[in-house]
């Protein structure tokens, strides 16, 4: 009898120890890694955001893995080969579908299940129709203009609700292009060799050129991203029209298209009256620098703008995809980036409700960091809802290599050495081979 009592006592003790161990184990937080490109200082800022999440979610610990920007994709590819990818991280827009094609990204279709609002469809990266990433912010291309230059020329401001046709845009740019004697480009005595103020800059940083193919009734790829269509007459003509602003119309300064600095070398410099650029410039380049406002892009044939935004992804190799998804959803919430990014004009919200609910729209843009409320709402908020479409990297792989090669063959177009037709037709086969992954 004593033996039985001792046995049962020992058994109960073992069971109690086992339960206690299970409780302790269950209480241990899940550790996930978030990869980010940038300097140690930037990584410290991201870690500070992660620390906020960790404090609010004691069941999860997020650790930031900082990788230099120039090494980022190479490092991730090496880690993927070793099956050692982080749980989640930031990606370059043009690299998302490449990773998805290799099966390296998790399906995030359920990330917003039950939410009161979804991210805009135009900033949702899809593979075989399923979301594999959402942009952390929305950005569209718009037209900026210097109000003082329009006032000096006695011209009405571009409409925020009725975009100019391309011909109207060129005609207005000619009136705003001045030589050293104050004569504009419409004057027979205009001195095109001594221009002191240009009427326009259409940014020829390569990925931004896609919008003009779409506006002109063409495209760079077919609808499902399986064929290169940049050699269509409409797409070729759109590139030539941009080049002719410098070559023929004499309203735009020459630019080789090798740097992402369109607004800085135009509106910010105070030497150009109108310029196309991304909405992020409201917060990064323009505060207090010049009197300006915004309008929709001019229209070749069709009203359209393109959108983009840095994606946050969950890697399929993660053993903690649910926790990684919880962190990414939290990290991209508008309230967590409101003061430094959204309210300053650097980021636009991703959730549809900020574009359709007037109270939320006012909370977002009715502040001194933005141009006039009515202009920005019509030209940006409403336009993003009604006319914004995804850039090709949201549905097509290999766009990074495609854009880099396209940039190289367009150089002679900008200086007039080749026509757009010659450049595109000469490079078409190689552009098609890039899409095919050859």
TrEMBL record:
<dbReference type="InterPro" id="IPR050490">
    <property type="entry name" value="Bact_solute-bd_prot1"/>
</dbReference>
<dbReference type="Pfam" id="PF01547">
    <property type="entry name" value="SBP_bac_1"/>
</dbReference>
<keyword id="KW-0564">Palmitate</keyword>
<keyword id="KW-0449">Lipoprotein</keyword>
<protein>
    <submittedName>
        <fullName>Carbohydrate ABC transporter substrate-binding protein, CUT1 family</fullName>
    </submittedName>
</protein>
<keyword id="KW-0732">Signal</keyword>
<feature type="signal peptide">
    <location>
        <begin position="1"/>
        <end position="26"/>
    </location>
</feature>
<dbReference type="InterPro" id="IPR006059">
    <property type="entry name" value="SBP"/>
</dbReference>
<keyword id="KW-0472">Membrane</keyword>
<keyword id="KW-1003">Cell membrane</keyword>
